[in-house]
Specification:
The chain is built from 10 helices and 8 strands. By secondary structure, the chain is of the alpha/beta class.
């Protein structure tokens, strides 16, 4: 790819399923690209450049707006299953046959659906601040936080992503400065799009019998990242994911909320990079099935 970064990568468009998807690609080409799936009301400009540029050092990064979000055309579906299908159509339209997928918040729910619907397309999965179908939202303060008023509209994201401690709030202010550093920014998400996302959330977290059964079908190595006290999608849901996914590791960051990887971007990039680049013992054809470790080993591949 070119030498573009988060701030300079041009917005491009591609059509799939009758949708004109907006996307940006940058970073190190030649390996398996990493596709980012964004949170509620987020656009391509809501990612932290410290994370995207950090990972772009060793990976090609693909940011995109799913159907109906910001600069992409179409309507936001009212289910994450449909959002996942649209994301798969976008990825395939780029001519990609294998990707790694990162999903944050509701983007993590979409990422799970991508892995379920197109298992051969997804190599590895990173889930940040998210939960499974039937997620336990009993202690979530999401409605309260999003309904409140703030001295600056951007300070909403201090409450969403960071804990109340002075150190976490300071990290949040640094994040906002990084987040707003791009000049040609995406349009904000429309009220109609946000309403559809809310409806999808309601359907996804609805209680049901054997609600976690779908997780058994996500067999890709999965890295789960969460804050110690997520007040949007409560931290217990990441533990539930780790306990029910066949092949998952959980990392909890201290004094952290929903946007834990924005509070610890350098640490996250290091750990995510190791996860994505490490060798996969299951790829060794000489191993017997009982000897295979499905999760990546700690020995990194040369790139």
């Amino acid at each position: 790819m070119t030498k573009h970064n988060h701030q300079t990568a041009p917005t491009r468009f591609i059509e799939a399923n009758g949708i004109r998807f907006a996307y940006r690609r940058f970073g190190r080409a030649g390996g398996v690209p990493l596709v980012f799936n964004q949170h509620f009301r987020g656009t391509m400009d809501y990612w932290d450049p410290a994370v995207t540029d950090g990972l772009a050092g060793n990976h090609e990064v693909i940011l995109f707006n799913n159907a109906g979000v910001s600069s992409s055309s179409g309507r936001v579906p009212t289910s994450f299953q449909e959002m996942g299908a649209n994301a798969i159509a976008f990825i395939k339209a780029l001519g990609l046959t294998k990707v790694d997928v990162l999903g944050f918040s509701i983007g993590g729910m979409v990422a799970q659906e991508i892995a379920i619907q197109a298992p051969d397309l997804v190599r590895r999965l990173i889930l940040v601040g998210t939960g499974p179908r039937g997620a336990d939202m009993a202690t979530s303060r999401s409605a309260e936080i999003f309904a409140a008023t703030y001295d600056s509209p951007e300070y909403l994201w201090l409450a969403v992503h960071f804990s109340p401690s002075p150190s976490s709030q300071a990290a949040g202010l640094a994040f906002l400065e990084r987040k707003l550093s791009r000049d040609d920014r995406d349009p904000e998400v429309s009220g109609e799009a946000a309403s559809a996302q809310r409806e999808a959330i309601g359907k996804y977290i609805a209680p049901a019998e054997r609600v976690f059964d779908h997780l058994k079908n996500i067999r890709q190595p999965t890295l789960i990242v969460q804050g110690s006290n997520d007040v949007i999608i409560p931290t217990v849901n990441s533990y539930i994911l780790q306990q029910n996914l066949p092949n998952a590791q959980l990392i909890l960051y201290p004094d952290a909320n929903h946007g834990s990887f924005y509070q610890y971007p350098e640490l996250f990039v290091s750990q995510a990079d190791q996860f994505l680049r490490s060798s996969h013992q299951g790829d060794d054809a000489n191993l017997q099935p009982a000897e295979r470790l499905p999760f990546p080993s700690i020995v990194s591949e040369a790139i």
